[in-house]
Specification:
Residues 501-685 form the Metallo-beta-lactamase domain. By secondary structure, the protein is α/β, with parallel strands linked by helices. It has four domains: 2-64, no CATH class; 71-173, OB fold (Dihydrolipoamide Acetyltransferase, E2P) (Beta Barrel); 197-366 and 380-436, no CATH class; 492-731, Ribonuclease Z/Hydroxyacylglutathione hydrolase-like (Metallo-beta-lactamase, Chain A). Helix content is 43%, strand content 16%. The protein contains 25 helices and 22 strands. It is globular and about 100 Å long.
């Protein structure tokens, strides 16, 4: 039976790694084949086919719920009910709308919306909203967060921006939002947001600095509900009933064991519902239910069997949960603990158990964090030794009890005041640790090296005395000192990152690194922090020899300060240094400057008669082995004509579309003179500026240019000097992504 459960789990997970889903007729045939083989020794194949068919069917249904392409960018009146907990940030409210419908058009049942400057929105309310609709899309960068997969895993078929709206019905049954509002009004010594995260699993009240501190110290699991909290509450309720029965306090007419198990599971389930019942909570509730069931039958629980049943239980009810990072981290952490402690022959002292559990989980999760593209907390094993009991034993009891007793005057508020003070002390201590030892973002490594590191971690989890266990350390160190492919001399590796409506281009030669523009920043949305800096670190960039900011507009220089703070940067040069923050210490663009790095030539140009920031863009020409790329910033047609009178008016192979392909740029005279065979466009999907303009796109096609668009193809990688087709990030096919499109690749 256990083999069948393993096969079922494998079938439920298989679609995650598939480039495309099988056709519907094949999905329908799979259960029939499964029924044919189940009675025989090949029954694991039957369980695998059942799991695969079920996962593929629900994935296809979720894809069919997406917004049709014809409605992308359209504005429609939509009616629906607000679900979950709306999030507020800098005048923007973000929320999910369920049970949506429109009078004229069939729309996805669930949407994620943003309302800029909108009124307060509460869970359970019904609204009629004018929404500019968008298909679920996300930025695609190497080893980056897949927002599109996350939306699909939550069943969200469209995103959008609210233009207008009217409340149709007040909130009904929104008890979680009511609890959050009550917590927000309590004096929690400035930590009401942290209390909401601990009690409700709502991290919206945590500041960006709070999140960074939690990430640096590896304590996110303590504030945003984890299975540990659920298990602690269930265990506490069970022990209270058992203790009452032992000392004669429990009513004799009630059998204590069934009541202890029932009340423990009810407490776990109630806390899970209060916390939103996310994947870690579902896993914990499922495992607690199995352990209590075994306890009722007076049998010793099998932790691996409980883990496997919980794993399959979560996936059977929600196969798309495997698209969430929390699913893998939650089940992996429990599996590491079961593996570590399940096969020990002798008991450890309590302090040995506690300390070894922390560092063994850290070692075991290291390869998992690496392959998921998440940072690794170096201080986490030590910090959690104190933070876990602090939260579990000191903060959580008064927080939950205070929330339950809020209707009682002074009592609930007093308990929450104590819990808030304890949380404030915790954050101050965590901030000290994070300031000294921030999280480590390891560079991506080849698959074979990751496999060796994962095997090394597995060896280190084995008991002492196992042969070859000591080899685990050098194998795991491949994560710290990974083998890297160096750029060949005379060539340049170019990455046009997918930063939305903006630009960021990484240029690497054998021993030097240049960043041309640093991505946009609009309000709290800083692409330098969320995209550029993490991507550079994962690509192995340890520092920048030059940050070249074409000009000072927010879509090109908005992320510059974050990148400079995060990476050692030798020089900053800009076409408009006076308009940049003084902290950047930017130098003026030296038009005509020319230099060589590792056999690759660079040359700068700027229009001396420029009147405004776009025209002042510092243009960069890169030449490697006779292949040229021209990075143009936001120059317009007037600056383009001036460029043609200078030294950069030479035939090129690659052109970064001036001003994202706007109508005022990419003039026919420029394209005819430079004769590029390909154009790179960096822009946001459905941007408000209409970039690229249809006339410009028609001009590119008329000249036979291949078009590579970050909004459709994600990050784009060139090996300048090799005369090869580019690598498209969207070319790594996944069934939830639309297939990439590109113009024909012309022969050089």
């Amino acid at each position: 039976m256990r083999t069948g459960m393993l096969a079922l789990a494998l079938g439920l997970l298989t679609p995650v790694f598939c480039p495309a889903l099988p056709p519907l007729w094949l999905i329908a045939v799979m259960p029939v084949l499964a029924l044919m083989v189940l009675p025989f020794r090949t029954h694991p194949l039957g369980f695998f086919l059942i799991g695969l068919a079920w996962a593929c069917l629900l994935a296809q249904m979720a894809l069919d719920e997406r917004l049709p392409v014809a409605l992308d960018g359209e504005t429609r009146w939509v009616e629906g009910r607000v679900v979950g907990l709306p999030q507020y940030s800098e005048g923007v409210v973000r929320f999910e709308l369920a049970d949506t419908h429109s009078r004229r058009t069939r729309l996805p049942a669930s949407m994620r919306l943003a309302w800029f400057g909108g009124p307060p929105v509460s869970s359970g309310e019904r609204w009629r909203l004018a929404v500019k609709l968008k298909r679920p899309v996300g930025l695609l960068n190497p080893h980056g967060f897949d927002y599109q997969a996350w939306l699909l895993s939550r069943g969200i078929g469209a995103t959008g921006t609210v233009k207008d709206g009217h409340l149709q019905q007040p909130a009904q049954g929104a008890w979680r939002d009511g609890v959050r509002q009550a917590l927000a009004q309590v004096d929690a010594q400035g930590r009401s947001g942290a209390l909401a995260a601990l009690v409700l699993g709502d991290g919206g009240g945590l500041s960006r600095d709070d999140w960074q501190v939690l990430q640096d110290t590896g304590t996110v699991h303590l504030l945003v509900i984890s299975g540990q909290h659920i298990g602690l509450l269930a265990g506490l309720v069970y022990l209270l009933v058992a203790g009452a029965a032992r000392y004669g306090v429990w009513p004799a007419r009630l059998p204590w064991l069934p009541w202890a198990c029932a009340l423990a599971f009810s407490a776990a389930l109630g806390y899970g519902l209060l916390a939103g019942f996310e994947v870690p909570v579902r896993r914990a509730c499922a495992m607690i239910a199995l352990v209590l069931l075994w306890r009722l039958r007076y049998r010793h629980p099998d932790p691996w069997w409980a883990w496997l049943l919980a794993f399959n239980g979560v996936l059977v009810f929600d196969p798309l949960a495997s698209l969430r990072l929390g699913f893998w981290l939650s089940f992996a952490a429990v599996a590491i603990l079961v593996f570590t402690f399940g096969a020990r022959l002798g008991p450890w002292r309590w302090w040995q158990t506690w300390t070894r559990a922390q560092w063994l989980v850290a070692v075991g999760l290291c390869p998992i964090l690496l392959i998921l593209g998440l940072p690794v907390s170096l201080s986490g094993p030590l910090v959690n030794l104190l933070a876990v009991p602090w939260v579990s034993l000191l903060v959580l009891p008064p927080a939950l009890l205070g929330t339950a007793l809020l209707p009682v005057p002074f009592v609930g508020e007093g308990l929450l005041w104590i819990a808030g003070g304890l949380l404030d002390l915790l954050f101050k201590g965590l901030a000290l640790a994070a300031g000294r030892i921030p999280a480590w973002v390891p560079a991506a490594i080849p698959v074979w090296a990751w496999g060796m590191a994962a095997l090394g971690a597995l060896l280190l989890l084995l008991p002492k005395g196992v042969p070859l266990r000591v080899l685990g350390w050098p194998m795991l160190l491949l994560v710290v000192f990974p083998p890297r492919e160096e750029v060949p001399p005379g060539q340049a590796e170019i990455w046009q990152l997918d930063v939305g409506q903006g630009l960021a281009v990484l240029v690497r030669t054998r021993r030097h690194t240049l960043l041309y523009d640093a991505g946009p920043r609009f309000g709290e949305a800083d692409a330098g922090e969320r995209v550029v800096l993490p991507t550079l670190r994962k690509l192995g960039v340890a520092g920048l020899d030059l940050m070249l900011l074409s000009h000072a507009d927010a879509d090109h220089a908005g992320g510059a300060q974050t990148v400079r703070n995060g990476l050692p940067t030798t020089r900053v040069v800009s076409g408009d240094p006076a308009a940049l923050p003084a902290a950047l210490q930017a130098e003026a663009c030296d038009s005509g400057a020319r230099w060589e790095w590792d056999g690759v030539w660079f040359e700068l140009w700027q229009w001396s008669s420029a009147l405004e920031s776009n025209q002042r863009s510092c243009v960069l020409l890169i030449e490697a082995g006779g292949e040229r790329l021209l990075l143009t910033g936001d120059i317009d047609s007037h600056a383009e004509r001036a460029l043609l009178d200078g030294p950069l008016a030479v035939p090129i192979q690659w052109l970064a579309a001036p001003h994202h392909g706007s109508r005022s740029s990419s003039s026919m005279v420029l394209l005819s003179r430079l004769r590029p065979h390909s154009v790179l466009i960096s822009r946001g999907q459905g941007n408000a500026f209409g970039h690229p303009h249809p006339r410009v796109m028609a001009r590119y096609r008329r000249l036979g240019m291949a078009i590579y668009d970050s909004a459709e193809q994600g990050a784009i990688r060139l090996q300048l000097g090799a005369f090869e087709p580019p690598h498209l990030q969207a070319g790594q096919r996944r069934y939830w992504r639309d297939p990439p499109s590109a113009g024909p690749w012309p022969q050089p």
